[in-house]
Amino acid sequence: MGNANAFEVAQKQFDQCADILNLESSVRAMLRVPMREFHVWLPVRMDDGFVRVFQGFRVQYNDSRGPTKGGIRFHPDETIDTVRALAAWMTWKCALLDLPLGGAKGGVICNPKEMSLGELERLSREYVRAVYQFIGPDKDIPAPDVYTTPQIMTWMMDEYSKVSGKNQFGVITGKPIGLGGSAGRGDATARGGMYTIREAANVLGIDLSKATVAVQGFGNAGSHAARLCEEMFGCKVVAVSDSQGGICDEKCLDLEAVCECKLNTLSVVNLPNATRISNEEVLGLEVDILIPAALENVITEKNAPDIKAKIVAELANGPTTPEADDILYKNGVHVIPDFLCNAGGVTVSYFEMVQNAYMYFWDEKEVHASLEKKMTAAYHSVLKTSQEYKLNMRQAAYVHAVKRVVEAMKSRGWV
Ligand code: NAD
Q1: Within the chain, which residue ranges are assigned CATH 3.40.50.10860?
Q2: Per-residue CA distances from 224 to 195, 219, 338 (Å)
Q3: pLDDT at position 2, please?
């Protein structure tokens, strides 16, 4: 992924918004940095009998609007600055969707692809013990993110329950159904993104049943997005990629075969008869909709001029640098910014928290309907601001979100 420092990107985006809103210096000082962060070192006994020490983080960016919420990543390239950036974006995301939550994020530097299930379980439990006193249903509620799964969430919830001596479904979201999870959480991030793509296509006059799509990143967010583009709108998904590279078929990929190939060989690139392309090439394809759904800083000033898509739907967090943003805006590309486009995940996570609190569970239809309402409203409020004030969609989303956080801090008397 690109070399830009994700937290510097997040701060630059915030600074632009602070200028637009003419925020006073105390407010800027408070919102440019996290309120709290925890650095932990986690001793884990590996299968070979030796103990390895992993470094982990939890960053609580701002809790003026409610307990903080945000995923945990297990990734070999994890850094504190990435976690800070992601925690900031969670703060704006929860505010934009008007959820009564602040923003947080966690991460552990590790390579889950090289760890056994037993090692992953011991690491997950150790992480929870290390941050136990700082998280909880009323304080900070983690969730899955890159390379963390419902199984990992279950181990974490179980460890927290064991230490506190009672069942604690509400400490974490993204759990499996039957263990406090919500219907509709699995594809919530992608589905939420679909509602925003549908609205954007309406605004731009794009007929989705004839539209072509490229997806970078074929994990939780990306694979569901590819499937739903086809299922909900009849789009043609012509390219997908993962960490090994990409594949394309200008007629249309057989998504069932792609999923099977990913499951059996751990990468989409092994699909027989598909043309192999690089991750970079996926971004520049002649398609109507480009969905970055992998990691941050992939659309930069270098490749932004080559992007031909009419809509860039950012399911990944932070895929576009500020310099690239300017180029895309000038070129008339409609960007659905990350903390709007991928907010479906945290929205259904919030529904999961609500269901955990009163131990009564909704069916999938109810979850989808509530998600659709929230995402559609958020998209249109951002679009309206962008049109009224001549801002790009990201700046408009920032204006909405930051205003709400500032209001909460002022009401509490913090600034
Ligand atoms: P995941 O671990 O399920 O999938 C990540 C995918 O990205 C994998 O297919 C991996 O092979 C691929 N990938 C890794 N490096 C790559 C590279 N260099 N080029 C192309 N592909 C690469 O993770 P996920 O949960 O789908 O998250 C993906 C993005 O979506 C992240 O930015 C995450 O923060 C964001 N997001 C996820 C959720 C969620 O609910 N899962 C919610 C909001 C935002």
Answers
A1: 6-168
A2: 13, 8, 16
A3: 58
Q: Which residue has 């070192």 as its token pair?
A: 41
* Contact partners, residue 354, CB within 8 Å, separation at least 6: none
Per-residue model confidence as pLDDT tens digits over 318-327: 999 999 999 9
Q: Are the C-beta atoms of 318 and 86 separated by less than 8 Å?
A: yes
d(CA 391, CA 156): 41
Residue ranges of the chain assigned to CATH 3.40.50.720: 188-341
Backbone angles phi, psi at 280, to 5 degrees: -65, -45
Give the bridge partners for 292, in sequence order.
216
**Predicted confidence (pLDDT) at residue 3 exceeds the cutoff of 80:** no
Kindly report, residue by residue over 332-342, the tens digit of the pLDDT.
999 999 999 99
User: Is the pLDDT assigned to residue 229 strictly greater than 60?
Assistant: yes
Strand partners, 103: 62, 69
Fold of 6-168: Rossmann fold (3.40.50)
pLDDT for the residue 241:
97
105, 175, 262, 374: which is the annotated catalytic residue?
105
DSSP 323-366: HHHHHHHHTT-EEE-HHHHTTHHHHHHHHHHHHHHHT----HHH
The alpha carbon of 224 and the centre of ligand 1 are apart by a number of angstroms equal to 11
Domain 188-341 sits in CATH at 3.40.50.720
Give residue 278's region: left, alpha or beta (phi > 0; psi -120 to 50). beta
Q: Please give the biggest Cα pair distance in the chain.
A: 62
DSSP three-state, residue 202: helix
**pLDDT tens digit sequence for 247-297:** 999 999 999 999 999 999 999 999 998 999 999 999 999 999 999 999 889
Position 364 scores a pLDDT of 98
Q: Ligand 1: residues whose CB is within 6 Å?
A: 1, 144-147, 189, 216-222, 241-243, 279, 293-295, 315-317, 342, 345
12 given a catalytic annotation: no
68-75/102-109 β-pairing: parallel
Tens-place pLDDT, residues 157-199 = 999 999 999 999 999 999 999 999 999 999 999 999 999 999 9
Distance 28 CA to ligand 1 centre (A): 31
